[in-house]
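Onboarding guide, step 5: your first structure request.
Type a short instruction followed by the sequence, for example:

Predict the 3D structure of this protein.
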Amino acid sequence: MTGRNPERIYGLRDLTRILSLTPKRMAQLRRLELLHGDGGYTFRELLALKAASALLDTGASVRQIREALATLRRQAPDLENPLAEVRFLVEGGRLLAQSDRVRFDPRTGQTVLALDAGGLSKDAEATLVTGLVRPLHPPASQAEAWFERASEWDADPARWDESVDAYRRVVALDPTYAAAWNNLGLLLHRMGQYAEARDAYGAALEHDQQCAEAAYNLGSLDEDSGQAEDAIGHYRHALQLSPDYADAHFNLAAALARSGRNAEAVRHWQRYLDLDAGSPWARIARAHLEVVEPPEGGAPQ
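The system replies with structure tokens like these:
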């Protein structure tokens, strides 16, 4: 044990949900070079993406943000991530930077965009339950007791190491415990230990061929590893096992859209909305549907 809490690593599909990224906003963030691939984003990078999105929402342009960042980097080369470390304000159509030594004066009419890191943490935590399997009955054996204990810890990044140890105890006691393999894989995945995560997901499917969560999680891992076609295949597998798996429809639609297969993505965006129209991510699905032209002959079947 090093004493440091493990850091969660975010994939592009996590960012899409946490930041409610529409196709237009993703294109803007790519132009700012803040989106650099499918996986490997830290919370600090998540803060920078949140800041850039907030500035764009207030009317700042991509060019203004890029120029402001370039100026800051010249003036303060020790800044590692200006968007996460500096506050910004919009004044008279200009984008200005503000240091911690300057306080907001409401008499000036200036709008200060202070990052709500706590709120962002809450949004990020909402994605932690995606892909998990939870106990349905009180523990009746030592393995189930450890599974329940691990399930209490796995939503708290500060206790991920303990949760990983607990899930390892479960599979040591019962190597066929598919849900424990799946959840162990998910924690290792979030901690950036992709090879071990893939082995754990594979063990989950080996011991329970109907574990749709493990197939779904393998798709997420493929995306984070830059293997788009494999991800699409695993999401389709998850939907074969559980046709009404809303998150699998969402991720499959997003993966197809990123691969330029918008016509195929449409029906999965639509099915996601049928299943979970009230979710905080429904806006993303609707935004994608607004920019996709259905194929000739009407909407996809």
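Each response can be followed by summary notes, for example: The CA atoms of residues 91 and 110 lie 6 Å apart.
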